[in-house]
Specification:
With 500 residues, the chain is of the alpha/beta class. The protein has 2 domains: 5-240, P-loop containing nucleotide triphosphate hydrolases (Rossmann fold, 3-Layer(aba) Sandwich), CATH 3.40.50; 263-497, P-loop containing nucleotide triphosphate hydrolases (Rossmann fold), CATH 3.40.50.300. It has 17 helices and 24 strands. A hairpin with a 2-residue loop joins strand 19 (366-367) and strand 20. It starts with a strand and ends with a helix. Bound molecules: adenosine-5'-triphosphate (ATP) and magnesium ion (MG). Residues 45-46, 88, 168, 402-403 line the site of magnesium ion. Adenosine-5'-triphosphate (ATP) binds at residues 16, 21, 39, 41-47, 88, 390, 400-405, 430, 432.
């Protein structure tokens, strides 16, 4: 192993219940470099990472780290060597504070015995400041948004002495300024000689921040190349094994002037975070809802879905005012909601994929008090085919699927009760570029059939590519609505931040 290498992987293989997930993968990471790791959903990226950081053990192959062969790596021994991971699915204790999470397992103590709360609070505040975040060290994690949870995971990783930082999709729900900030920190770490492995489906980001790119396809290593030699398009072709065509469907025509909106929000106000938010969503429309983290987008969606209480304002469905106090009432009004955080409110990890798909729509599959399993399974098989969910069958617990494939399952779940109004919150979080195209054309098809779609997304490319009209939130209210040629990055960010 040459002196400039930190990590070298040779011939690594791993199977789960007889199915080969990694097949003799080799990869090397230079000291003080950023390596992008890309591949379709289920290609084996997270599994490769879990072999390096001791979460799972490979069946064959060799891992050399700083000149030493790693054997029987455990999470603890990897951490001691300075291998720190930001996992794809967050690993935070929801009932504990930000500070407690950041120091969990390696608390600072006075005289080795008593917890030194003030030192931990101070250090947490410093870390959060470095990340330019306004999260309070004493906030309980359960009260944070998903983007804020991601920041806490990053802060926790930065708090460990680190030689190799592995980031498994750290930017999936971050906004452009938050991503910029993350890149700034990554570059500073690289300057300090730390190596980074960066997994992402946002190929433009990989292009921006990585020195080299390694590609996995179906558990096989395809190639490793300097980023400078590749465009984002080249990366997509290497991942998929062929050229990809345009991924966005044609935008639907503007709705007829006289039609009443399928969903109208009129001055909706919540106790906190949302004030006098108004917007109209028509049948057949794909309306974007953009804004920075904390601007109230998710809170507004949650109010429409009956998870949060409104203090004033009206919600109208097809021109009639509705009172929604629970998700069940929202579903009865024809509203579906795909939550941004599938881990805490989207799906049940230990349930088979098929059960997750019918979670909301179970009544459809019942005859008296029996669940018609055949019908339920057939529906799941249809989603597996349609979204190309990578799994053996609908009987697989959804927790065993790769991150992106879990997200596809969450979409199937919210669609299965045939809603009229669909609110998607970060729909393509963690989904690879090819499957993203499938989901976009699916949304396009739903709109053509008359469904009213609201797309909340931090991914501006997605909002701009999919929506003819975009509402932008700032400080809890709708700061402006952009249409047609005004739907561009500059005008969206202007409304979102209030600065030119
Ligand atoms: N604990 C497990 N039990 C069984 N199969 C598993 C388990 N973990 C992963 N797999 C399978 O291994 C394959 C690779 O999964 P992995 O999570 O490594 O993919 P990935 O490249 O990270 O995808 P994504 O982009 O969706 O996160 C998938 O087909 C997945 O179903
Ligand atoms: Mg993964």
């Amino acid at each position: 192993m040459s002196a400039e290498m930190l990590l070298e992987i040779r011939g690594l293989s791993k199977s789960y219940s007889g199915v080969r997930v990694l097949n003799s993968v080799s990869l090397s990471v230079r000291k003080g470099s950023v390596t992008g790791l890309i591949g379709e959903n289920g290609a084996g990226k997270s599994t490769l990472i879990k072999c390096i950081n001791g979460v799972t053990r490979p069946d064959a192959g060799e891992i050399l780290f700083a000149g030493e062969t790693l054997r029987r790596t455990t999470i603890e021994s990897a951490l001691r060597r300075g291998i720190v991971t930001i996992p794809q699915e967050f690993n935070l204790a929801n009932e504990m504070t930000v500070r407690e999470n950041i120091f969990l397992g390696h608390e600072l103590k006075h005289g080795g015995v008593f917890l030194n709360h003030s030192a931990m609070r101070k250090r947490t505040a410093e870390l959060l400041e470095r990340l330019e975040s306004r999260i309070s060290p004493d906030a309980e994690v359960s009260t944070l948004s998903i983007a804020e949870k991601q920041i806490v995971e990053i802060a926790r990783a930065l708090n460990r002495a680190c030689r190799l930082l592995i980031m498994d999709e750290p930017s999936t729900v971050l906004n452009p300024p938050e991503v910029e900030n993350l890149f700034r920190i990554m570059r500073a770490m690289r300057g300090d000689g730390i190596s980074i492995i960066y997994v992402s489906h946002k190929l433009n980001e990989v292009k921006t921040v990585c020195d080299t790119v390694a590609v996995l396809r179906d558990g096989e290593f395809v190639c490793e190349k300097p980023t400078a030699e590749l465009t984002a398009r080249d990366m997509a072709s290497l991942m998929v094994g062929r050229e990809l065509s345009r991924i966005f469907p044609p935008k639907p025509a503007p709705p007829a002037e006289d039609a009443p909106p399928a969903l109208e929000l009129d001055g909706v106000t919540l106790e906190k975070l949302v004030h006098h938010a108004s917007l109209k969503l028509h049948r057949g429309e794909i309306l974007g809802l953009a804004g920075l983290g904390g601007s109230g987008r998710t809170e507004l969606a949650e109010a429409v879905y009956g998870i949060r209480k409104t203090v004033s304002g009206r919600i109208l469905v097809n021109g009639r005012e509705v009172r929604i106090h629970s998700p069940a009432q929202a579903v009865a009004s024809g509203i579906a909601y795909l939550t941004e955080d599938r881990q805490s409110s989207g799906i049940i990890q230990t349930f088979p994929l098929a059960w997750n798909c019918s979670l909301i729509s179970l009544r459809k599959y019942c005859l008296a008090s029996f669940i018609r399993k055949k019908k339920e399974n057939a529906a799941a098989e249809e989603y597996i085919r349609r979204f190309r969910i990578k799994t053996n069958s609908g009987a697989t617990p959804i927790g065993e699927l790769s991150g992106g494939n879990q997200q596809k399952g969450a979409i199937a779940k919210s669609l299965d009760h045939s809603p009229e109004i669909f609110i998607f919150d970060e729909p393509t979080r963690g989904i690879d570029i090819k499957s993203r195209g499938d989901i976009y054309s699916f949304i396009g098809e739903l709109a053509r059939r008359g469904m009213a779609c609201l797309i909340i997304s931090s991914d501006l490319e997605e909002v701009i590519g999919l929506c003819r009209k975009v509402a932008v939130m700032r400080g809890g209210t709708v700061a402006g609505i952009l249409e047609d040629e005004h739907v561009n990055e500059k005008e969206i960010m202007y409304l979102a931040t209030g600065v030119k």
